[in-house]
């Protein structure tokens, strides 16, 4: 192949050499005849892929190579006659559309008056190398030994072609030195929009930049985030893939695999591609390919009986009638893709019906058409294969031959039609040029009798006309207005495939509104009415976030529940959002709800503590009543009834102060809690301290010369109680003045809750209050401990010692429990310490006395108490 290309390049060099030096050497080395020829004042050419297979000649360069054969054939056992001849009736319709357009223009007196268009139509075999030969044949002319291209202006002004982007790239590069404009009807590669590389290229089909943008919108619309891509081995496939990757960057769509159908079809390579498609979790496949190379691939695909894949077709094959047969529907039914906007060409159907073998007995293309449609050869054809049965040549073209007879809504044919008219209108504007007002140097016009291609290109760039209600023009890149129909392959009434329009993409619309889809009219792969799901990982529901898997694409992820205090309220959240300070996440992690406000209320715990506190207060009052009733009995009098009444009164207040800790904290309750508690307990311990001193003094006063009791009379006892309590009052007053306790919201200890608590204001003052109570208790304990072994049946010092021991133990245990308890349990611990210490004092100090008073009254005598019995 490289040797042939070298020979062709050498031929091109000869063509570009001045005519006066090589005029005798302008000889065609091998003829390349056109399929149709018509003379005219202005000659244009058309290149169409009338076949999609070719037989390469022997290129050993030792003798003149034979012509390239475009109609490579297969075994007659093949059922599909399209495959048998590799002849493309659809492309033949395109070529006939060009002929029809030229004939219409020549018969139109208002367009190109007094001038006619001529044409030469060549076959490119849908292959770049053959397209190159066709381009050279276009330039030189067929079967001419001396080409007029070697001197003077070109007899050829423009080319309609090519179909594939790879072929157009080759042809456009050959035409570039000669500045011959080329209008493509089917080459959509974005690379061809580069004016620095392809300055003479135009097209009436949108660039792939818009097609890949439309496909990207389509994938996102149906939430297909995990897709495969299969492309052909050519510029069209490569640039389309690059454009799609560029459009998908920054979106949620990932490419699962990128596979390439080899240019020279290889069945083993195709099998590898099919295996990957079958096993991949991606159920949506985007295919950038031409129908020629896709046909053998789909044949192998169907042999493997692979189903369940949603095909996304590029415009190159989405409306190909080659795949409209019923045998394709189980595998390709539901295919969706963007096709070229359709149009209506009046008279096309009748014109196609006139193309019959007997009318063109020497044209092999017409006979090949008959062979492809009916599987027979006409007796009037020359060189027909004997493998096919004979036919009369009078067979009637039927509607089911859609590849050829699809004239109700042609797409590529309509592009060919517009391309021919674009050249005609450009030539019309050229011949209408007024002398002295032209666009060329010195305001000159083109010489009508010697028009150069570059002069036609100037008018072609600025042409603008209306055809069948559509405005046609070209932008600076030679591209036309971007617009597509969204095509869906649905089952027809006879089991064949019908191409149904289910939407459109208009690139001229504002961003975000280009794609319009009629979702309810779409049939999906497998004849399903629901959209196929194609994702690497299932969507993360609200309440979860995506965690990308290491080493895998972004579309492959795990769903991780949001941490407490964070939410995600939408599907596929990348991260979870923290709730505001006073809010917390619900159980599902989908919304922020107000935090639970917690405090020691009158719930089960609060009511229990309330009942215990009230019971303790009532019990204390009952003991007080008993003592008051039996105030004249020895056991009450011996134990200093006045101090006993003070202790019982202060214990009652201690029980009742626990009630202040229950309920929602307020400014007043916070200040009263600790002050009442500290003062009442200080009063109680001060009374016990006074009693301890009295007991200790009473037993030591019996010693000769000891008159200590005169310093501990009732008045002195009151002074001691008042003084000790006053110290606590002063501390509390300083506390309330400097930094009083206040209600606060604690959201740190338990982040899911707002704990309403009383902040102590000053931690130093709080611990000073508790420390002072502890100091009094320790002093009582030490004094009572010294007097515990003094004589007497009822030595109260023993009970004071034990009561202080319990009191100190309770409050020592309170400190760590208070610090570590969460929320409302902190307050509960404090209440429990108050109640426990109060009950300990009450029972230790007064239970033995009440037992004697109420149960053993016979022991309630002075002698018994003094131990004289």
Automatic annotation (TrEMBL):
Q: Which GO terms describe its cellular component?
A: plasma membrane
As for subcellular location, the record says:
Cell membrane
Output the Pfam families linked to this UniProt entry: 7tm_3 (PF00003), ANF_receptor (PF01094), NCD3G (PF07562)
**Where is the chain membrane-spanning?**
604-630, 642-663, 675-699, 719-737, 764-787, 799-819, 831-854
Record's signal peptide: 1-21
Give the similarity note.
Belongs to the G-protein coupled receptor 3 family.
**What are the protein's UniProt keywords?**
Cell membrane, G-protein coupled receptor, Glycoprotein, Membrane, Receptor, Signal, Transducer, Transmembrane, Transmembrane helix
Q: What's this protein's name?
A: G-protein coupled receptors family 3 profile domain-containing protein
Task: Give all residue intervals belonging to the G-protein coupled receptors family 3 profile domain.
Answer: 605-869
Q: Which GO terms describe its molecular function?
A: G protein-coupled receptor activity
Q: How does this chain sit within the bilayer?
A: Multi-pass membrane protein
Q: What is its main location?
A: membrane
Whose protein is this, by species?
Denticeps clupeoides (denticle herring)
Does Transmembrane appear among the keywords? yes
Which InterPro entries does its entry note?
A: ANF_lig-bd_rcpt (IPR001828), GPCR_3 (IPR000337), GPCR_3_9-Cys_dom (IPR011500), GPCR_3_9-Cys_sf (IPR038550), GPCR_3_C (IPR017978), GPCR_3_Ca_sens_rcpt-rel (IPR000068), GPCR_3_CS (IPR017979), GPCR_3_vmron_rcpt_2 (IPR004073)
Gene3D superfamilies in the cross-refs: 3.40.50.2300, GPCR, family 3, nine cysteines domain (2.10.50.30)
């Amino acid at each position: 192949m490289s040797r042939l290309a070298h020979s062709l390049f050498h031929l091109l060099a000869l063509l570009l050499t001045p005519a006066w030096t090589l005029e005798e050497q302008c000889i065609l080395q091998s003829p390349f005849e056109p399929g149709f020829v018509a003379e005219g004042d202005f000659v244009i050419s058309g290149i169409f892929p009338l076949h999609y297979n070719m037989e390469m000649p022997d290129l050993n360069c030792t003798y003149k190579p034979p012509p390239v054969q475009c109609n490579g054939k297969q075994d007659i056992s093949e059922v599909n006659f399209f495959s048998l001849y590799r002849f493309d009736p659809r492309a033949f319709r395109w070529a006939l559309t060009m002929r029809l357009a030229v004939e219409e223009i020549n018969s139109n007196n208002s367009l190109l008056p007094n001038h006619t268009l001529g044409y030469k139509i060549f076959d490119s075999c849908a292959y770049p190398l053959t397209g190159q030969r066709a381009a050279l044949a276009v330039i030189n002319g067929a079967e001419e030994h001396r080409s007029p291209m070697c001197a003077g202006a070109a007899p050829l002004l423009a080319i309609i072609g090519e179909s594939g982007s790879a072929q157009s790239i080759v042809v456009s590069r050959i035409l570039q030195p000669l500045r011959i404009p080329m209008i493509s009807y089917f080459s959509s590669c974005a690379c061809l929009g580069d004016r620095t590389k392809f300055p003479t290229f135009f097209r009436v089909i949108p660039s792939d930049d818009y097609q890949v943008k439309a496909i990207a919108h389509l994938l996102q619309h149906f939430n297909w985030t995990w897709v495969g891509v299969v492309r052909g081995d050519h510029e069209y496939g490569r640039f389309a893939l690059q454009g799609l990757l560029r459009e998908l960057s920054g979106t949620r769509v990932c490419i699962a695999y990128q596979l390439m159908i080899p240019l020279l079809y290889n069945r083993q390579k195709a099998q590898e591609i099919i295996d990957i498609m079958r096993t991949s979790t991606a159920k949506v496949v985007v295919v950038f390919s031409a129908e020629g190379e896709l046909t053998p691939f789909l044949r192998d695909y169907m042999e493997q009986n692979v189903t369940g894949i949603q095909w996304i077709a590029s415009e190159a094959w989405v409306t190909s009638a080659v795949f409209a047969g019923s045998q394709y529907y189980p595998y390709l039914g539901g295919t969706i893709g963007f096709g070229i906007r359709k149009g209506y060409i009046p008279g096309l159907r009748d014109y196609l019906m006139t193309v019959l073998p007997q009318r063109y007995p020497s044209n092999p293309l017409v006979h090949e058409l008959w062979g492809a449609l009916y599987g027979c050869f006409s007796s009037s054809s020359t060189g027909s294969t004997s493998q096919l049965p004979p036919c009369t040549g009078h067979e009637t073209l039927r509607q089911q031959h859609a590849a050829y007879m699809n004239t109700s809504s042609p797409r590529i044919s309509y592009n060919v039609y517009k391309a021919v008219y674009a050249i005609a209108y450009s030539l019309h504007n050229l011949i209408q040029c007024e002398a002295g007002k032209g666009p060329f140097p010195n305001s000159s016009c083109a010489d009508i009798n010697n028009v150069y291609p570059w002069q036609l290109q100037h008018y072609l760039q600025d042409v603008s006309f209306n055809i069948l209600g559509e405005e046609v023009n070209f932008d600076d890149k030679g591209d036309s207005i971007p617009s597509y129909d969204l095509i869906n392959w649905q089952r027809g009434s006879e089991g064949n495939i019908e191409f149904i329009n289910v939407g459109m993409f208009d690139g001229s619309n504002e961003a975000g509104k280009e794609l319009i889809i009629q979702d309810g009219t779409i049939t999906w792969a497998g004849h399903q009415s629901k959209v196929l799901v194609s994702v690497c990982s299932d969507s993360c529901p609200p309440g979860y976030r995506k965690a990308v898997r290491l080493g895998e694409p972004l579309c492959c992820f795990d769903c991780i529940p949001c941490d407490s205090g964070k939410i995600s309220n939408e599907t596929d959240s990348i991260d979870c959002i923290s709730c505001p300070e006073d809010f917390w996440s619900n159980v599902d992690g989908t919304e922020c709800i107000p935090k639970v406000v917690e405090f020691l209320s009158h719930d089960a715990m609060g009511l229990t503590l309330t009942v215990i506190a009230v019971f303790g207060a009532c019990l204390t009052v009952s003991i007080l009543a008993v003592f008051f009733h039996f105030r004249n009995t020895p056991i009450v009098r011996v134990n200093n009834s006045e101090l006993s009444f003070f202790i019982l009164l202060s214990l009652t207040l201690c029980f009742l102060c626990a009630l202040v800790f229950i309920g929602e904290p307020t400014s007043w309750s916070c200040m009263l809690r600790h002050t009442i508690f500290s003062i009442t307990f200080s009063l109680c311990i001060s009374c016990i301290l006074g009693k301890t001193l009295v007991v200790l003094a009473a037993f030591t006063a019996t010693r000769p010369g000891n008159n200590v009791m005169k310093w501990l009379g009732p008045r002195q006892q009151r002074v001691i109680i008042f003084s000790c309590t006053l110290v606590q009052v002063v501390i509390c007053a300083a506390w309330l003045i400097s930094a009083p306790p206040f209600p606060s919201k604690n959201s740190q200890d338990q982040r899911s809750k707002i704990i309403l608590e009383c902040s102590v204001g000053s931690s130093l003052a709080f611990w000073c209050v508790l420390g002072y109570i502890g100091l009094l208790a320790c002093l009582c304990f030490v004094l009572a401990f010294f007097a515990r072994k003094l004589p007497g049946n009822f030595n109260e010092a023993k009970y004071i010692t034990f009561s202080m021991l319990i009191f100190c133990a309770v409050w020592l245990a309170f400190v760590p429990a208070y610090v570590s308890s969460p929320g409302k349990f902190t307050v509960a611990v404090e209440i429990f310490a108050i109640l426990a210490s109060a009950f300990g004092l009450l029972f230790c100090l007064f239970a033995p006395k009440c037992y004697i008073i109420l149960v053993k009254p016979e022991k309630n005598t002075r002698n018994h108490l003094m131990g004289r019995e």
